[in-house]
Amino acid sequence: MSESDKAVKDLIKRDYEHGFVTNIESETFEPGLNEDVIRRISAKKGEPEWLLEWRLKAYGQWLEMAEPEWAHVNFPKVDFNDIAYFSAPKSKDDAPKSLDEVDPELLRTYEKLGIPLHERARLAGVAVDAVFDSVSIGTTFKEKLTEAGVIFCPISEAVHKHPELIKKYLGSVVPQKDNFYAALNSAVFSDGSFVYIPKGVRCPLELSTYFRINEANTGQFERTLIIADVGSHVSYLEGCTAPMRDENQLHAAVVELVLLDDSEIKYSTVQNWYPGDEEGKGGIYNFVTKRAACIGKNSKVSWTQVETGSAITWKYPSCVLRGENSVGEFYSVALTNNFQQADTGTKMIHLGKNTRSTIISKGISAGKSDSSYRGLVRIGPNAENARNYTQCDSLLIGDKCGAHTFPYIESKNKSAVLEHEATTSKVSDDQLFLCQQRGIDTEHAVSMIVNGFCKEVFKELPMEFAVEATKLLEVSLEGSVG
Amino acid sequence: MLSISNLQASVEDKQILTGLNLEVKAGEVHAIMGPNGSGKSTLSQVLAGNEAYEVNGGSVSLEGNDLLDMSTEDRAREGVFLAFQYPVEIPGVSNLQFMKTAINNIRQHRGQDEINAAEFMKLAKQKIQQVNLDPSFLKRGVNEGFSGGEKKRNEIMQMLMLEPKLAILDETDSGLDIDALRVVADGVNALRSPDRAVIMVTHYQRLLDYIVPDYVHVLANGKIIKSGGKELALELEERGYGWLGIDEKAKA
Ligand SMILES: Nc1ncnc2c1ncn2[C@@H]1O[C@H](COP(=O)(O)OP(=O)(O)O)[C@@H](O)[C@H]1O
Ligand SMILES: [Mg+2]
After folding, report:
1. Which CATH number is B2-251's, of 3.40.50.300, 3.40.50.720, 3.30.1360.70, 3.10.20.70?
2. Hey, is the C-beta of A447 within 8 angstroms of any chain B C-beta?
3. What's the pTM value of the predicted model, to 2 decimals?
4. Is 0.90 exceeded by the ipTM?
């Protein structure tokens, strides 16, 4: 057996660290989807009539749509009537007023996940919103953010407190009927985070939302909306985990970013949903629509993502570069192992003059997994002097996995400059032998080589996240977690 | 220290080593010479534990322990170091990170704590200077985009940091200019001590002007066919391998 075969054997034995279930009383809807379910979700949240109408319209559109089948993934059809569309921890009052009132069991869950929410041990310099199944259970550092004029709260709360912003921007980047999963999300979304950074404000803290699916047979449909007003700046982090369950669970989120003149949003994700076991049983179906609209000139958005989880990932964080001189960046590491499938990439839509975009995608496949990069660069007729640089690297570990790249380019303006580079490499026996000859065991060697491969992306992550990402890769690559 | 007896090894079903014997004692420097394709690299790789080579006979002991029974990393942790003839690149993994991981893996094996960060940096800077490489090489990916000479210096740097008991140098001198050759020689001479041993595989007698070996061996057709003192190298330089009954061209 060659060294890399052995490494793969060890890889396949990996365990999922966040697979525990929290025993908490919750109120969960019966599985199934119809108008009544949507009305009940809306009523639970005490939503205004216009939002209920908005949901019902989306539901009507969704009924007319078909599931997309173009992605390079295979899975049994999802029965949308087998899923529960709402689940919330049951607490005395309807919702906790502050974190002090949150069920201690929930706080312990987040602590176990390394996200302390209680007063004493909060993450320094990071404000956290924690979303457990369908509801947000609390947001830290509220006072400090309020001082700066930053709004960071559950989107269900923003609907009541900032209806003018929600009305104006909800669905402005990802319309209800954008695609099958976005329409579903628009109909049934339960919670998520809302962020507004006022004019000229540099957000004093990193903002972070931590998503956790706990309940069985429950879908998670969160909705995130971030608005960066003129000249503002924010860095936003998103983390996700779920318990190990034998059934597949659906996660269909929508994230909308709005950027006005001279603003900047840095959006980082470390996605570690349960990937299923080594036979490919269970795991999260992660079908997510993420899009940023650079409406204003000189605005800049970067998506950085580290994807190690999910049984199936279908995800293309995109940038619509409408404002002159606006910049879109996409940095991605996607690691698949065992039977995981990932079809991920980005879309850069250049509409304004002098718009620039950069795509750095690193795909790592191990075991029998399959990973695809799918990227679209579209240059509109008015996008004078648009530029794109795309670099797409794949690393294979073992010889039973696959990597595919599907780059699409549509240019309607001759002044555009587009560059594309792609490489595929293997963790070679010679590299492993060199490491071992220096005293490094195979597991350390593989994780070191993989980290080296991802370096260009990791350096884009905020510090705490970079450490987490490195650890996560190590865990994902380890034979077992101690 | 090292005792090789009747060692036989093959690669891809081709028998390369055909019964090789060699004794190396602590404090000694041995040079191994021989025509291209005679099995010098095979010997080095087999001693280091490369699984691409199959050992199909004989035994090797290191300080009384069965070397062939040990994993590659354990051999390294017990003090076996191989300077590669063709060092591979590990893109994105800095020399510093690589060496720190190596040192800590070795220390863990010996029941020691992780190396102190400041102490490690001091050691790394000192050794990189010793091989005449700019300190910026510490931050670059392992051998990533290095020239041939820089790769070889980097191997010596690693050797000096790890201070192995048994250093095996596989044609570290090949393709080096005179300055680099000096660096390699100084490195090996600095390592020389009564409790260490060195095996130098070389093609040229040139290196032996700088590192004077205790023994010179000729490897041909997978075994050692002649051994002698340092004067044997000079004789080989003068007369080639023909007088030993080896057809050099056929092997090249
Ligand atoms: N990986 C390999 N696959 C096939 N043949 C090999 C391999 N490695 C070495 N050989 C062959 O084994 C013989 C000895 O090679 P080597 O040990 O590299 O010799 P030297 O280092 O003395 O030049 C050569 O004929 C070479 O072609
Ligand atoms: Mg050789």
Report:
1. 3.40.50.300
2. no
3. 0.80
4. yes
